[in-house]
User: Fold this.
Amino acid sequence: MEPLQLREVLMFALGLAMVVVAVALAPDQNQTLPGCNSTCGNIQIPYPFGVGNSSTQPQQPCYLEPKFHLVCNNSNSNLLWADLTVLSINVQAHQMDVMFWVARFCNDSDYNNPWITTAAFSISRNKNKFLTVGCDSYGILNSNYENRTYSTGCLTKCYGNNVEIIDNGTCSGIGCCQVDIPPRMRRISSIQAATFSNSTRDCSYSFLAKHNSYNFSISHLQSFPYVTLPLVVDWTVGERNCSRFESSRNEYACKDHSHCNDTDTDIGYRCTCDHGYQGNPYLGCTDINECKSTDMNTCISEQNCINTDGSHYCFCPKGQSGNGKMGEGCYRKNAVTKLVIGVAAAIVTLFMGSTSLYLIYQKRKLSKLREKYFKQNGGSILLQQLSTRENSSRMTLIFTEEQLKKATNNFDESLIIGSGGFGTVFKGFLENNRIVAIKKSKIVDESQKEQFINEVIVLSQINHRNVVKLLGCCLEREVPLLVYEFVENGTVFDFLHTQKKVNTETWKTRLRIAAEAAGALSYLHSAASVPIIHRDVKTANILLDNTYTAKVSDFGASRLVPLDQTEIATMVQEDHLFDVLQVDMVNEENEKEIIEVAILAARCLRLNGEERPSMKEVATEQPDLEEKESRSAGRRKRGVQIVPCGNARVVRAIPKSL
Assistant:
């Protein structure tokens, strides 16, 4: 192929491609369904309106709903809605202009009362007025809404035969009056024109009319020239509002790049193109090329604009700075600009570098502080102890501060599950989804740290069903953190004092909980490799799981409290035993057993430690009600006595002289 021929072929192909692209990017001007008439005479018929059925398969109706069905009178090219002539249809405004009749009253045999029965369209209150023309005349507009009739209207009176007092060309109230249209005027039951009784005036005329479609003239008082006048009606789609289509869109009329709008509609909804799109929303909206639109283009010129789907953006030519928008524009780069940019870049670089160095310094400082606390809190001792034990796991005992911060969302107060004099307990979630309880103590006793570490190691190896498992600790803080297994059913204190649980659990359950707690303490006092003394046994430190099994907790926490930090001691008074017992707790079956337990408790509370039983004795003690007599003497020796008190018995101290 010759070079000249090749050039002509390439130019033709390029031109053809440009035509194809231009056609593809051109907005879709089609306003009707395929195979449907788009006009009747010179009137456009946009969908959802339509005439008849499509000429293409499957020959579906050209209209969306029956209320949008129009008829084209081919003989005179009139487009009809029912028996009203259609002047225009506006899809964007959702309005239609039609010719509507004028009501006339001349005498009892010469009058008419026009009406509209459809509820699919409403009289546009913003585009129309109701008028009455005549002297000694009045007009009434009657409408039905929700099976009720309400009316509006106006009147005009002329006194004498001097028409010079009437403003020609203005509907001022004399000779011509007008009122606004009330809302929701759908079913017009009638428009009435009338004259006052005994009036000798000519005919009266009442009508609905589009703004500026009627100009009053004095001559209309003798001869009114119009039979019909333009009227604007508003229309909507369907009978449901937009919210009904959020779950089901099967009958949704709004197509691509459009949305539902039911503002100021009492029946149905409207479809509106999304921002940046245009066209018929009932067929699908197309992108607006804002670069070609002088109204929507915000760039300094079309050459500085790039159209995007639903929007556009502006740019500056090469070698210039700015954003290419009107009012801001573009400017050429110069030496000063470059200097400013260079200085700004240097400042930013210096700031970023300084910030990075400061963060590195703070990170190292924090790391050193954590190392300091780790050593102060006995971390070296703990590591040494662990290294000498077989099958020990550092990861199960030593947690980092970051791990526990992450587990508690930086110790979020919403995760607090308990608090007291020694510290606060948080609910935590480890990375393996295990739920734990994290104890955050308040103060630390330097002299107790070595003993504390030894106790942590011993407690971490205890696997007793009635002892809360100590999973590990964090030593990177000034006060160490302890990590326990999570027990979900609260404390014995909550169990005893929560109203909803007061009368639901039996004496046997409570006695079992006490026995389990005593067994755990006995085990720690005598069976553990190193005896462990709790020093803070109370109902708030005994937890319950989902089967109400006792779990003794908070071991080793007292080691963190200086020995000179003491709490207020309370005196024990066991002479009012049955006064303090819960209502309905005592019965004939457990009365003696309760007394036996009270006696055991009294022994445990003696001030002289040598007179108190060991926890092993307490755990193995089982009240035997059948051996009451043989134990009575023993009780007297131990300094207590059961004495009658009405229908109950109390435990009291026996004077030494006895």
